[in-house]
Request: fold
Amino acid sequence: MTVIGAAPTTTQGAPGFAPRYRRRLWSVRHARGLAALYRAFERSLRAAAPLVARIGAGRLERPVAAVERRVKGALFDCKMCGQCVLSRTGLSCPTNCPKGLRNGPCGGVRADGACEVVADMPCVWVQAFDGARRIDGAGASIPPLPPVDNRLLGRSSWLAVARDATTAAP
Ligand code: SF4
Reply:
């Protein structure tokens, strides 16, 4: 599998990051347990696909997106891009990159693992590699990610999982 660049050095716990980033740092630190929880949740979403189809995904979109926004906003500073890649980025949301980079860090990561643009923010990609290692071990890699489709902005990724399960059903 093609991987993106080399994994930068872990800087988890490095001093100097603003307190407002503590939740996303916590989530990366607990990536292994949270990823296991999410896999179980994803199975539930797929199992609920027939019910979602019966009710109509369109009718569920607003309430489900509202819950998703709250839960993932609290845990990951989610921006509701509508095509969640957290399970592939060590539970670090790449949408928080000020440069909008979806496939690895720019060349400007600071020596302490901070963002080049926002000096007191941990680089989301350094965190992504850290989280991936916590989930998959030292040899973890992050696969190339598809470009962002702005038409999905604000939509629920959870519902998309259920919809995909319906589409893929034989
Ligand atoms: S990748 Fe998208 S849906 Fe997933 S946490 Fe980030 S903004 Fe939210």
User: Anything to note?
Assistant: The CA atoms of residues 115 and 123 lie 4 Å apart.
